[in-house]
From TrEMBL:
Gene3D superfamilies, alphabetized: Magnesium chelatase subunit I, C-Terminal domain, P-loop containing nucleotide triphosphate hydrolases
Entries under InterPro entries matching the protein: ATPase_AAA-3, CbbQ/NirQ/NorQ/GpvN, ChlI/MoxR_AAA_lid, P-loop_NTPase
Pfam family, one: AAA_3
Name the UniProt record assigns to this protein: MoxR family ATPase
Species of origin: Glycomyces endophyticus
First and last residue of the signal peptide: none
Lineage: Bacteria, Bacillati, Actinomycetota, Actinomycetes, Glycomycetales
């Protein structure tokens, strides 16, 4: 029997397994689609191309994004722009101190006409969920996102309900030092693949914002890809080639954070898996079907830093998770090109 199956540039054949390397054409198609999406978001979020690309990397790695910065720097605008550029269903949840868990996940209500209980899904049932100012809600409400972020489902009254796929949470939060905020628990921080800071725009970009000449709202942004394409691109990232020495390199970096003298709790296995997935997407966004050490270095800070719990005395001295990650790279030797090939 002749094989008549044709491979779409952005689709992985069903027969393909992990050891099989993607072709150059598929990697280039991924990079082209990634760049179109990033360029579209760049028209709304001016002067932040690196942050935009890191956020999109997290999306295609099937992770969740935490944006932390002071108010007014464009956190929500970036989240809405990403949602608009993907033609899927999206919802926005404004977290407040009086928000209840059922306001997020949904609630079961008795229908007198039918004589049965019916589940009314909450705003978390969407492809992209924008959790705005997530740390202004109580810890009980914050925990309502734990199950859905990890397993893609919500359990209400003992019954599981699957959320649409692909599923992405883009959460924004204000710095914990600000009034009216609750610190996110470590278990929930570990669910976010990356933690990013938008930061203040550069002078030229801020001038353009004031002029309004190139300013666009997320509502004006036309969809670039649909949810099926996002799912296909995420599947491609699972087939990126990783040389054996790079697996050891990743584990050694994680161990370096765990054994750091200023760290109470280092990077978890979940965090290590997250870095591997993110580096795979990053490699494809560069048009490569294989990971190199530079991909790991580019993603380690956003993926690792927020997962590291510092010892109390180190935190008081001003140490940061980013510094611990930098120390880990100084301690762990980079695999030689011949060994990583």
């Amino acid at each position: 029997m002749h094989d008549t199956e044709q491979t779409h540039p952005l689709r992985v054949p069903k027969r393909m397994q992990q050891p099989v390397q993607l072709g150059a054409a598929q990697a280039e198609s991924f990079a082209a689609a990634f760049e179109r999406l990033a360029s579209a978001v760049d028209t709304v979020v001016l002067g932040k191309p690196e942050v935009v690309r890191l956020a999109l990397t997290a999306m295609f790695a099937e992770g969740h994004i935490l944006l932390e910065d002071v108010p007014g720097t464009g956190k929500t605008t970036m989240a809405r722009a990403i949602a608009a550029a993907v033609s899927g269903q999206w919802r926005r949840i404004q977290f407040t101190p009086d928000l209840l868990p059922s306001d997020v996940s949904g609630v079961t209500i008795f229908n007198q006409a039918s004589g049965a209980f019916e589940f009314h899904p909450g705003p978390v049932f969407a492809n992209i969920v924008i959790a705005d100012e997530i740390n202004r809600a109580s810890p009980k409400t914050q925990s309502a996102l734990l199950e859905v972020m990890e397993e893609g489902r919500v359990t209400v009254d003992g019954r599981p309900h699957q959320v649409p796929q692909p599923f992405l949470v883009v959460a924004t939060q204000n710095p914990v030092e600000m009034d009216g905020t609750y610190r996110l628990p470590e278990a929930q921080l570990d669910r976010f693949l990356v933690k990013l800071s938008v930061g203040y725009p550069v002078e030229a970009a801020e001038i353009e914002v004031l002029r309004g000449t190139h300013q666009r709202s997320p509502e004006q942004l036309a969809a670039v890809v649909d949810t099926d394409t996002v799912a296909q691109m995420a599947e491609m990232a699972k087939h990126v080639y990783i040389a054996e020495p790079l697996y050891a390199y990743l584990v050694q970096l994680a161990n370096a954070t765990r054994n750091h003298p200023q760290v109470a709790v280092g990077v978890s296995p979940r965090g290590l898996i997250a870095l591997t997935r993110a580096a795979s997407v990053f490699a494809l966004s560069q048009g490569r079907s294989y990971i190199i050490p530079e991909d790991v270095k580019a993603l380690a800070g956003p993926v690792f830093a927020h997962r590291i719990q510092l010892a109390p005395d180190a935190a008081m001295r001003g140490a940061t998770g980013a510094q611990v990650v930098a120390d880990a790279f100084d301690q762990v030797p980079v695999p030689l090109p011949s060994a990583a090939a």
